[in-house]
Amino acid sequence: MTKPKANIGVVGMAVMGSNLARNLAHHGYVVAIHNRTHAKTEKVLADHGHEGTFIGSESIQDFVNSIDRPRSIILMVKAGASTDATIAELLPHLNEGDIIMDGGNSNFRDTIRREAEISAKGFHFVGTGISGGEYGALTGPAIMPGGTPESYKTLGPMLEAISAHVGDEPCCTWIGPNGAGHFVKMIHNGIEYADMQVIGETFELLRAAGLSVAEAAETFRKWNEGELSSYLIEITAEMLAQADPQTGAPLVDVIKDRAGMKGTGTWTVQTALELGVPVNGIAESVFARALSSHDDLRTAASVLTGPDRVLEVADRESFIEDVRQALWASKVVAYSQGFDEIRTGGEEFGWNISVADAAKIWRDGCIIRAKLLEDIRQEYSADPQLVSLMAAPSIAPKLGEYNAAWRRVVVAAAQAGIAAPVFASSLAYYDMARAPRNNAAVTQGLRDFFGSHTYERIDTPGHYHLEWSGDRSETKISED
Ligand code: ATR
Which pTM was predicted? Predict the structure, then answer.
């Protein structure tokens, strides 16, 4: 009797890869597995072989041969050169129509390049964002596949089956061609940076107002029952309530105040700069992490004087409510900026991304899953061309309602010497965007002064230049 062939293969048996392979097996798929270092494949078979049907192979050739054609092969290896190396190893063994899916955190520009190279050889390449951490990979992540619609016909049902679900709606949908899936995942991570930074700022404000760590934990726990309900708020409450196993002090107080990062936040900001999309909250979050780890700068700056980060709060309960409202408003602005980048990038790269779909599949499984995402999905479904989430019918009035509290919190933070860059920059973005006239006329006037860059007038069309170093006469340079 011939051995059954696998429905799908997974290369890379580190934590994410092995959990994804197990998730597939739990859903009844026969899963071929392979890892560069064979011991990891053997360990998965030994520890989890009983959970489903796995076919482990030591050689890449045996691995490929063990999969049913047209083959679907998921790469879960380190992003970057390792992904290219693994693809190069696989290609000679594939047949026309086979699909390679890259489920790592690859840069979407690498995905565009790889898709072009691989599709030219007659194979499909599907760059796919996967979010949910190791637990999500095992139990149901949010999945953001790019690539061809044709490859989604084969891969889609399997990915949808293993993804998280809201009711019977899978947190997985085809995002768009080539790099679209990794692009959307990149922005998911950028938003995640802002979400976490604004939670950190909130915690610092609550502590400065006299709340103990336990009281702050309880505050987040209560907030999680309301409109702020989200995975990150939920685990903040849990993390803050955790005692240090060594000293018994709150664990958060013994964790070094240095935040690491792996690059997707930086890419989100770099790409936003190239697209000309302001993502202030995400950028501040990336910078905040960078500054936190900049030891020499922090040591040098420790001589600087200012208020001592204590908030004199007359009514603690009303201050806590102010902070809650400011948190909601700042978070919504950061999301608005991220969705703006998705919309703009989708247009720029010709992907035709549905922003509503991105919000839909982030409602569960991923790290930024939140109640708010259902509202966002509804807004973008009702108006796919929505320019700014801030201005959406269900969001704008609430931002107005929370305005006073938001401003009080930003003022209180500034006066007490507490850095709250996401709270403050989100408010600045909000004010700059809503102003009928902003300060850019000064910049443009100066640009014309020193560089003859011309200016437009408010009263007539055209570009104009003033003879700044001459008789100060005005010349019309162009009609439009
Ligand atoms: P984690 O941080 O979860 O360990 P990772 O470092 O992103 O994951 O990815 C590690 C996976 O990529 C491993 O399966 C690793 O194979 P080994 O177990 O043999 O180290 C795989 N990997 C890394 N570089 C690789 C390469 N050049 N070729 C093939 N696989 C590679």
Answer: 0.96
SS3 100: strand
H-state helical runs in 209-279 = 213-223, 231-240, 251-254, 264-275
Q: 264-309 pLDDT, tens per residue? A: 999 999 999 999 999 999 999 999 999 999 999 999 999 999 999 9
64 lines ligand 1 (CB under 6 A): no
The answer to whether the CB of 366 falls within 8 A of the CB of 171 is yes
Mutate to test the pocket of ligand 1, among 13, 16, 18, 36 (most ligand atoms within 8 A of CB): 36
Query: Ligand 1 in contact with 60 (CB < 6 A)?
Result: no
- Cα distance between the two ends of the chain: 76
Catalytic residue among 58, 78, 169, 192: 192
Closest atom of ligand 1 relative to the 37 alpha carbon:
19
Q: How far apart, in whole angstroms, are the C-alpha atoms of residue 458 and residue 449? A: 18
Q: How far is CA 115 from CA 43, 84, 101, 121, 271, in A?
A: 32, 12, 10, 10, 19
**Strand, helix or coil at 450?**
helix
Tens digit of pLDDT for each residue in 126-169?
A: 999 999 999 999 999 999 999 999 999 999 999 999 999 999 99
- Structural domains in the chain, sorted by start: 8-178 (3.40.50.720), 185-434 (1.10.1040.10), 440-478 (1.20.5.320)
Q: Which residue's CA lies nearest to atom 12 of ligand 1?
A: 77
Whether 185 is catalytic: yes
Can 192 be counted among the known catalytic residues? yes
